[in-house]
Amino acid sequence: MVVAFTGRRSPALGDESVVRERLHAYLTRSGPTAVVGAAACGADLLVLEEALRLEIDPEVVLPTPLARFRAESVEPDWRDRFDAVIATTGHTEAAPVAAGEDPFTAGNDAILRAALAADEDVVALILAAPGESEYTEDFARTAGALGIPVTRLD
User: What domains can be seen in the chain, in order of their start residue?
Assistant: First the structure.
């Protein structure tokens, strides 16, 4: 099974240790072979760091080129952690979007499709409460349209 993931950015994350404990419990209980997602500060990086600790194969799919993603989606306090994860995992970038198209919604689709390409058994993990973010809600809708069940840790 592969876990495709998204979640809160660092300002809305809450107590990092609580989130990390819940992630650890979820990942050890569900036993995925891989996790697939972006690497924004907050929940994304926590999932990737925990996957690395548990020796679960991580795949990073960025919605924009690396430098732009790092500047726009990773707060300065998280950049060393981001750099360490990327140095360990590498990354791919979603296909460029047409003018006027949102790269982050296209990135959600790219993450979910990368997970499906890795294994037909995929779960979408969202680390955010319903309605907390338009992008996490888009991730849930896209997962549903692709027939991927959604699990939330909020």
Answer: 2-152 (3.40.50.450)
